[in-house]
Amino acid sequence: MSDLEDQRAFLLRSLEDLEREHDAGDIDEQDYGALKDDYTARAATVLRAIEQGAVRVAVPVRRRRSWVALGGVVLFALLAAVLVAQGSGRRDAGDTLTGGIRQSSTEKLNEAGRRGSEGDYAGGIALYDDVLVADPDNREALTYRGWYLFLSGKRAEGLTQLLEVATAQADYPDVHAFLAVVFDRNGLSAQALQELRLLDGLDAPAYIRDIVVPLRDRLEAAASSTTTVAVTGGG
Amino acid sequence: MTALVRHPRFRRWGWIVIGALVLVSLGRATLETGPPRTTAEQVRVIGATLKCPTCRSQSVSGSDSAAAKAIRNEITQRVEAGESADEIRTAISATYDDVQLIPKASGFEGLVWIVPVFVLILGFAGVAAGVARWRRATTRHATEADRILVNKALDER
Amino acid sequence: MSEVGAEPDRSDELPGPVQQGRPMVIVAVALAVVVALLIAVLATRSPSGERSRQSPLLGRPAPAIVGTTLAGDSFDLAEYRGRWVVVNFFATWCIPCVQEHPELAKFQARHAGTGDAALVSVLFDNTADEAQGFFTENGGDWPVVVDEAGAVGVDYGVARVPESFLVAPNGIVVQRLVGGVTAAEVDDLIAQYEGAPE
Amino acid sequence: MNAALGTAGVVLGFAASFLGVVTLAVGLRQKRPRLLETGWSYSLLALLGALIAVVAMQRALITRDFSMGFVHDNGSSRTPPLFNVATMWSALEGSILLWVLILTGYTVHVARKFRARLTDPLVGMALLVMLVVGAFFFLLILGPANPFTTVSVPPGFDGPGPNPLLQEHILMAIHPPMLYLGYVGFTVPFAFAIAALATGRLGEGWLVETRRATLTAWGFLTIGIILGAWWSYEVLGWGGYWGWDPVENASLLPWLTGTAYLHSVLVQERRGMLRVWNLSLLCATFSLTILGTFLTRSGVLESVHAFSDSDIGVWLLSFFAFTVAVTLGLIGWRGDQLRSPGQIDSPLSRESAFLVNNVLFAAFAFVVLLGTVFPLIAEAVNGRGVAVGPPYFNRMTVPIGIALLFMMAVAPVLPWRKASTELLSKRLFWPAGAAAITAVVTVALGARGLGTVATFALGAFAGAAALRQVVLATRRQGWRGFVGRANGGMIVHLGVVIIAVAIATNGHFLREIETSFEPGQTLTVGGHEITYLRTVVVEERNRTATKVSVQIDGDRIYEPALSRYDGFGSLIGTPSVKTGLREDVYVTVTRLPEGVDGPVVLRVIIQPMALWLWVGGGVMVLGTILAAWPGRRRVPTDPVSALISLDDPVPVPPLRGSE
């Protein structure tokens, strides 16, 4: 069926439907009149076109695309969507809008500790450096940075840093534990014991106290007798 | 009675009353909280937002697996200790990988929230544009000749 | 094909269909691209069966295990500091766990003498009675912690037994082992970590 | 012997489908009516092949012929007779066989219905499309999903039987066939849509001709989904009925697009608009059934219901790609011919209401699809999985559902073309009054939460609007007022309202308690007296069930259980439900007693209105039957609010063909 015949059938059917809808009370008198007039005029145009042997009627293409309107709608949709996401989605601490994690200092410290315990000392040190940019006196960052420096082979540098912290912030237990280990590895048993004593005077967390248990046992045993007890393992 | 009901003024006032009743009820329903929930109910709600780590696609509330039961016990204890739902969720996801069933609001995961809303709004805008485009700007008036022609065509059908 | 233009002043009011030819092609192409991407994603996914060995616990201190063993003794993981500890989650109804059992026994026998590594099993969705029978029958003289409420399992994020965690002497979890383990596998791991720069 | 017979059947079916496709293609291309007429024979032969294969399968299952691969893997002499029949669709290979049987059945139905018009290119093309789909599924059975392999078995061998979860309830025997009747049924309108595109006959003729097939498919899909939810509620002991599991989503997706189509097709029939949209919806519905089958059968997604993995994924995905490519290509090619003659007369009209309805349904489907595949997309992009679970689906779909309820109230009273506000005010007054009263009453009864109360109010609104239509229609036409698409549709709406209200009530007023019971102890939970009597361990053929006897309200004894299936690992809980009109009492066992006299821990869930979920489903199905009721041909263009008496001569619109 050609385009015009399609339209003729559609318009004539619409006129019939309109009658019945009007009879059923679906359409106001006024609307009925206007619609009927309109359909009739359109149907007549199509009927004449068919008589003249045309295949289709010219259709003007309306291209009043308003880019502004489109942009506005897109912007609005985007904004609404982001708001819905913020309202409904899960927000973890430290999440940014783009999902990059803007880590707080605490998170960076945790992450650095994790890296270090996995053997990635350079990664840990870099993170501590980050923390120190924002908070130059952060004792945890300073201490563990020194410890990781020591572990990664930069022994002198690490020792210096640890000593600095131990002087500036002597009440931080962790630094004494690490210094004890460092001194011990350098053969300075007495100074190591000294650090352990300092540690005892502080309220150290269990985690730190546990680290030095084998060391303490060995040092104290060595101090009381001349026999050295080998301890396997180590943190 | 019927005459009264059919009267436009009655209906106008009726609509105002209906609107007021609906607004007041919805407002009350939104602002007030319901009765307190039992521990089991709170556990169910929290568990529904955590994935059972053993199962395929079930939540902790929806599974009978050992891991889900253990996590439910843990949630129960924490609920009884007075922890908030968020605290409990955070605590559980500290030991289990990928158990949060609510996607994050931000980052790539956030797209799962953003895209449908974006598409829905664009869909409505599209329909509005379509309706505006489909509508003719003016209605035409038929001439007497038009009417005769069309009536003839209608009779032939 | 002739087009009607008899009433040019009215032509824009004709019951004309909306021109849709080109937009249709654009929409079809756009949809095709989206669907093609989706298919590409779907086609390259491996079956979901592969489980990760990731755990948020790695690199963190091992959660405490305090409880009673099958033998009735009290158990505290903290007492094992300074030794490697394999924390093994186990259930008698799980067939891979039963298959794993001889390997665990081998590991235990190897290290019982030297004392450099220890093994502890934690029951997972298993009652003491069920496990008692199993251990009486199949042997095994390492501590087996009863965890009826599954609290320890949750602390370690155990999904599906058998699952084992390797805890370093400093109390840090270094490895999550999903599925059955062999004695050699665990020893290799320990050797690997021991060899790493301290 | 059975395996050989089955293979012979599949080969016959494939050959018939394949040759049918070739013959019809040649016939269509060279315009040879003689060739087109053979479509009937090829359809029959394909059905015969499928029947032979199914008979061989059933025979093997009944005789426990373990030398056949499928029976070896899924059959068991311990399975009771009914579940033994159902074993066929408890695993992938057998369910594809069921699919093929239904598909060839539908093909023969189409060929029979149009046997006088087989030479019509439209019908020929539609049959060709159906045979192509049939050939593909026969090929699946010959290739990656072959149940008719032969294995050598030692004497005395007994198979494992179907997955225990599938043996728990009789619903599992009927749910899959219903679902497949729905899934596969959408192939018929899809075939005609493709045929219309290919032949260029894009008028409204094919719509009318496939109307009843579409309604039938939709009805079966509805039954399938409701039965699935019911099964989930009765068997999986978590106390819910819908978990947004990928398998559930896969069945919901075609239902959503199908429902959108059922509405938008009215706009095309009546107002000559939305031709492309309707074709797209049908193609989307069919493609989504294939995609859903892929998602749930290939093992890429985790699902509770995905009971089998296999390498069938590549095949299904390729077929999905093929389908989409063909449809999009055809639509792009025919784009300029798809222009619709219709236009919108006013934004306040039923056609605009249907447009809004379609946007909402499409968005609903989009949310479900995105949420289902998003974990895979995220993994591909980020390399890290993301879990998207029920909270996401609920938060996204509940607002859409509420908007749909609103449209459901307004659309039926809107007239076509143009409505005046006066008319709307008149027709919506009483429904709106019912909504207001409902809102006040439910809030007074303790309902809280915007979504909950809005659902109650809008449920009353939509329900009253639907009732108004039914009452008007019956007043004018007597009992005929229930029959026909418009009136049947209103009954379906009532069913939807019942379900929506039941979901809201169940979600909001659900009460749950988990507590320990001593033997003989009675506790009152939510006004129900629950007495724990005793625990009995029952050794059954394939499981050890520990049944806990519980008396509810002094009524009969209920037996929730925990079972350990042989070789199935962890304990599986089976709930026991006391069903009531107002609420169900749902009991599951959380912890078994130690010894005989120990306390048992039970989870008791008071499920308000749970029964009404299934009742609402029944009403929807009833409405669908009424809508599709064969009878005197009804005019698709009856006015909205007042139906013309059928005694009057009704002008029949110029539609090609007749039903």
Q: What keywords describe this structure?
A:
heterotetramer, A: 235 residues, mainly alpha, 3 domains, disordered C terminus, B: 157 residues, 7 helices
What does this 3D model show about the protein?
The complex is a heterotetramer of chains A (235), B (157), C (198) and D (659). Helices cover 69% and strands 1% of the residues of chain A. Chain A has 235 residues and is an all-alpha fold. Chain A is rod-shaped, with a radius of gyration of 41 Å. The C terminus of chain A is likely disordered. In chain A, 34% of the residues are buried. The termini of chain A are far apart. Chain C is an alpha/beta fold and 198 residues long. Helix content of chain C is 37%, strand content 18%. The N terminus of chain C is likely disordered. Classes of the chains: A mainly alpha (235), B mainly alpha (157), C alpha/beta (198), D alpha+beta (659).
The percent of residues in helical segments of chain A reads 55-70%
Number of domains of chain A: 3
Query: Numbering strands along the chain, what is their spatial order in the largest sheet of chain C?
Result: 6-5-4-7-8
Radius of gyration of chain A: 41 Å
**CATH secondary-structure class of the domain at 66-195 in chain C:** Alpha Beta
Write down the overall mean pLDDT of chain A. Answer: 76
CATH architectural name of the domain at 66-195 in chain C: 3-Layer(aba) Sandwich
Uncertain runs of chain A are 227-235
**For the CA atoms, what is the radius of gyration of chain C?**
31 Å
Counting DSSP H or I runs of 4 or more residues, the number of helices of chain C is 5
Q: What string gives the helices and strands of chain A in order? A: HHEHHHHHHHHH
Question: What is the structural class of chain A?
Answer: mainly alpha
Would you report the number of β strands of chain A? Answer: 1
Q: What separation lies between the terminal Cα atoms of chain C? A: 88 Å
Largest beta-sheet characterization of chain C: 5 strands, mixed
